[in-house]
Structures are given as structure tokens and as C-alpha cells.
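In this section we walk through a basic example: taking a raw amino acid sequence and producing a predicted 3D structure, encoded as C-alpha cells. The instruction is simple. Fold the sequence below.
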Amino acid sequence: MKNFVKELQWRGMIQDIMPGTEEELMKGPTVAYLGIDPTADSLHIGHLVGVMILKHFQNCGHRPIALLGGATGMIGDPSMKSAERNLLDEATLRHNQEAIKKQLSKFLDFDSDAPNAATLVNNYDWMKDFSFLNFARDIGKHITVNYMMAKDSVKKRLSGESREGMSFTEFTYQLLQGYDFQYLYENYGCKLQMGGSDQWGNITTGTELIRRKLSGEAYALTCPLITKADGGKFGKTEKGNVWLSPEYTSPYTFYQFWMNVSDDDAKKYIKIFTMLTQEEVEAAVAEHEQAPHLRTLQKLLAKEVTCMVHSEEEYNKAVEASGILFGNATSEALKGLDEATFLSVFEGVPQFELSTEKLGGNILDLLAVDTQVFPSKGECRKMIQANGLSINKEKFTDANGVLTSEHLVNGKYILVQKGKKNYFILKFV
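The resulting C-alpha cell sequence is shown next.
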């Protein structure tokens, strides 16, 4: 049996581990879970670390459980956060659950007959009928307030570090998470809970509850919170989270995120976010160090993660789209892009909206009168004569020329390039 703990160790994916965990896992197939709060209908790359842990766990012959925190998502987890989270209604949570399961299916085998097929559960299903009185009697009495107060996550919120204080709802969160562990221990034979290092307090409350209430033995393992070499928050861009859903983050933008990480981050991320073996990673790092300017590590990382999250087809499209922006692409290649990719590639480029009736009009009028690509017809003419104007990546050399429907990309766009770096999009409606 493959050693799961050793696999995570060389990848730098273990922060804390309870004594005896590795030995327990080497006895034979074990059940473990990792919780995800379904606060949106897509995971983002911050969730990807936990998902990869579950994937490695299944890959090593064990049975993973992905727990969606429908109940706890209605409350919010105070761990290492400075303020309470917005609470969600049941319909939203169910919608989010379905969307997340679909995403998880790309990483985990839920459907096979294998004994270690993954399971998806929602803690709302066993929490919804739990009365407050029953919870207070059956769970609350086993864990002291002193024990709960000693957790770092609670201490920080109650100390002078936070002005917000902490609601009773949030204070009970670790008990709820502890009960999840107990429930899965009793009903699924789950011996191990995994999560980010900010979850250590909540996870160990679960192991303590199992010990005190059931005289059982359970284990805990956490991974470090992923950071960037420059100290910035991983997975965040100026535009917010990098999502796994193509509706929120296009495959091209997703691919570019990984392409643009620093060398130091690439060396770290290639271990965490891919299934490449230790030998393959070491060979890739060595090759990269021979010629860092070629960015071979970033290219490999971007390929592996984009293929895994989206598909090889979307990866190829993203590579092609990158060539359009940064290489010597043709008009045909540009016209081959779907609308979403086209708009992703040229995100932030100034757009001018025009009536389709303007098609067939003189180029000077289009670019200097109907739009403000040029301040005057004279400047536009000069640029054309100097061979500095491109339409859809092809030089446009006729100052008396016209743009027609044949120039349209996706039936509505024309890409105008002024000089080397100034792009504009004409949108015809």
C-alpha cells in the first residue's frame, strides 16, 4: 500500500499531524474526510489544496469523503477570520452542492465499484433534525468551555485583535464540526479528518469528542495555508478569486494565472497542484534551472492544472489564445477563438460599440469619427501610411479601405491594433 503521509511530506503538504496517524493508515484502507463550505456554486483554487489531498488519499488506496458543510455553511466558521460570514438559505446551499459535486468528480472517483470510491455527504442532512436541546445534552456536555476557549481561533476573536467579538453561533462551530467527525466515525467508519492548518482546533475537538463519548480513536492531519513568495494571498488576483468554473474564470485566464507565477512559487506549486511523481518534478525543476527564462516549469504547471480542471482541449485553446496576444498570430487563428476566450484574451482593452450599419464605411471615419481610436483622420492616415495599423492581426495599408462583415470575429468584433501594443475592440450590434 502506498504511504499517503510520505506522499504528502515530499510535496510539502503537511503542517500538523496527530501521533499515530501514519501507522494507522499503513494498517490498511482507511476512511478520511475533508470539509468544504459550499458558500458559492464553484470551488476556487484556494480549495484545490484540500481536493488534491483527497485525490492523493484515494490514489493511495484509501476511501475519501468530501463533506459539504451545508449546516455549517449556514453559520460560518470563525477560524482565523476577523468577521462573520454571510449566511445562506437552503435552496442556495443545495444548488451550490450540486455544482461542487460536478467539479469534484473531475478529481475523485465517485461512481466506480471500487471499495475506495469517494463519497459526497452534506452535514445539513444529519443536522437539520437535530434539536437544540438534544445537541446541548448529547454533544455540548462532553466538551468544556475551557477546552473551547483554549483554541487559537477562538482566542484571537475574543482578544483585543478583533473589535467584532464573536457570536454564540460561531462559538459553537467547533462543536458542530466535532459532531460531524463523530457522525462520520459512527456511520462511515471514518478515522481521520484532514483540512487546512487553520482547522486544527476544530479537527482536534472532533477527535476529543470521539474519545470522550465513544472511547474511540481518531486522527487529524492539516496542510499549510498556501502563500505566495511575495507574501500576497494565493489564488487572488486584482479581479478576485481564481475559480474552477469556466463561467467565473475563463480557462484562458486560469491558464495565465499559473503561467505568471514566480519561479519560487512554481517550484512549490508543481508539487502541490499536480500528480507528477517526485522524479518527474525533480527533473522538471532541474530543466527549468538550466534556462529559467524559458519558463518550462510554469508551462508544465499550467498544462497539468488546466488539463485536470478543464480539459486538454481547453488547455490547447488557452495556449493558442496566448500565442495570439504574445506571438505572431494570423487573422484565421483569431477568428478561430470562441467569444469567451476572445474577450478573456483582450480583457481590459477599450471597446467601442457601433451599429452594424457602419460596416462598409471608410476606415478613417470608423476609427477617428465614429470611435476615438485616433484623435483625427490625419493621424489615422499617417499610421496607415507608416504601416502601423493592423486589423485582426493583419496589416491594413489602404487609407481609403473599408471594413466589412467579413472582418468580424464571432460575428460581432473587430480587433484594431495601433502600433505594437495599443489594442481596441470594435463591437458591432
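Looking at the output, two observations stand out. DSSP finds 21 helices and 13 strands in the chain. The longest strand covers residues 190-196. In the next section we compare this with other chains.
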